[in-house]
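Thread title: Can someone regenerate the structure for this chain?

I was given the following input by a collaborator and told the matching structure tokens would be attached. They weren't. Posting the sequence so someone can regenerate them.
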Amino acid sequence: MMKFRFAAAILAFYPMAAHATESPWTGTWKLAPARSSPGADGAPPAYVLAITADRRIRWEIPSIGEVVTGHIDGQPMVVHRTKPTPGLTLSVFSSDPALPHELAYKVEKNGTQIGGGRMILIEGGKAWVDISWAAGKEEYGAELVYVRS
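Best answer:
Regenerated them for you:
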């Protein structure tokens, strides 16, 4: 009986402990077109992100069947999509070891950068801004706002 109570106490505590260390990026995010730059119509309508304390990331864009998994360390991760895109990679990095409120990324095709951007959490983690651009065109970046759903 004592073992059962101990196990029940551990299981009751575990969800709270896991939630307390969850990244503010983890969750489902929907595009807010009215808050984004004009022309946001072609942007992904939603992202599903999961980031762990050890800097592992799972990045999904459900509308195109995109799934990317790896680490937030700047190393290229293969982009897997329903419609294959050979040679496409995504690198995600952060200058802050704690991974709080800003991430940067770049997209490459066969080793050549084709785009990049910065993702910044705003409104206490209720939304984030994606400032993205084509390679070499940083001055023409567009802003997309995603809100937690």
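Residues 38 and 142 are 8 Å apart (CA to CA).
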